[in-house]
Amino acid sequence: MQMTDYKPKIVAFCCNWCSYAGADLAGNNRLSYPAEVKIIRVPCSCRVNPTFILRAFQRGADGVIICGCHPGDCHYTSGNYFARRRMALLFSMLDYLGIERERTRVEWVSAAEGAKFAATMNDFVSTVAALGENRRLEDLRCKK
Amino acid sequence: MQKITEDLARRRAAELMRAGEISCLLGWKKGEFDYDVEPTVFYTPEEVERELVCNVFSAANLSKYLISLTRKAEGRVGILLKPCDSFSFNQLLTEHRFDRERVYALGLPCEGTVDTFLLKERVGEGIYSIKIKDGALEVETLSGEVKEIPLSEVYAERCLVCKSRRPVAYDEMLGEVTPDADEDRFAQVEKLESMTAEERYAFWQGELSRCIRCNACRNVCPACSCERCVFDNPTSGVETKAPSEDSFEEKMFHIIRAFHVAGRCTDCGECSRVCPERIPLHLLNRKFIKDINSFYGDYTAGAEVGSRAPLVSYTKDDPEPGQGGQK
Ligand code: SF4
Ligand code: SF4
What is the ipTM score, two decimals? Predict the structure, then answer.
């Protein structure tokens, strides 16, 4: 099987206040999650503009996950509620264009949920790995 | 739109101009051919009486021009509004893009506009002139032949599924409100949704790869009224010319274009009308409208001035992303 050493590239946008701290906690507790997950720290999940996600795919990501504080716990009160609406619409649009819906995900992870962070990443990486390389939203020039 | 509407519009607009109520009028005039009726600004009542065209070819949505015209014209600007344009008019007001006091709006009844691509296809050869008769177009071709084309065969898709012919904004109405269209505007979106992901991908590849990035869809859109557009930013990741090597660019462009007007798009259909490649852009916009309606409750952009667009509000129990509206 040719896919044995295929490792998907994953971009994780993590909000500074909850999910990034959750990732930190996972590290402190020595919980492992795949090294293919590249974390980008953002001030709030609602900082994530749909363009960022498309850009990540353009530059070769195989999956993009957005992590933020649980609804109701946003450091800025309501940022994640806006993010939730935007992402719901964007993901539905990607699906409508025929792009695999499993390549994008939103997960709410608090600063105390190191274990959830690691488990989420493990699960997301294996889901994306099963899909294989992102071929429908790639930019060949960026892969040269 | 009927001949009587045109006569009435000419008379009334010229009257308003003579009385000094309006300093200029946003309307339509004949272009090179009978079918390319184009938006224009009239400054004298004589021009209005001679040249104003209000018929099935007066398709352009004029409301976007109010942004620049109210800034430079003196006094009040007159505008002719079809019902669908009145939603854009309200949406622009909601976004504070022009001052309502500076505008006098004449509402027009509408029974639909003609899709000129469809008409040309239907006629099959060069069109020399067109006479509008009751329910049909009498087309004289370049070879001198006269063909009668029923209007019902060449109405634009957007008019067949028009969301409402009840105008939502005007200062005075020229004529009677016409009955609503009865076709479902989401039927095509539903059809696409019922296909497999592979089929949908192939469908959109076929459509979007024809895009030549002329930007007409963006420039015509009354919801796309930013003075600096993300696509003019050289580092946005989207080329400003048609991509040659791959297919990412146009997907990026189209997803972001549609996303930027999500919740504000009034489904006026101008983007699809002006696309030289006939890409069904309305199917992207309507997907967002349909999702917004099903996820967050029915919302019609422009129905009311001052309503809060769905993407700038939220409720605590909105559905989670990726679950197709499930909570
Ligand atoms: S996106 Fe198209 S249908 Fe929507 S407001 Fe703009 S031009 Fe009209
Ligand atoms: S009008 Fe059509 S061809 Fe031009 S940029 Fe828009 S979709 Fe592309």
Answer: 0.92
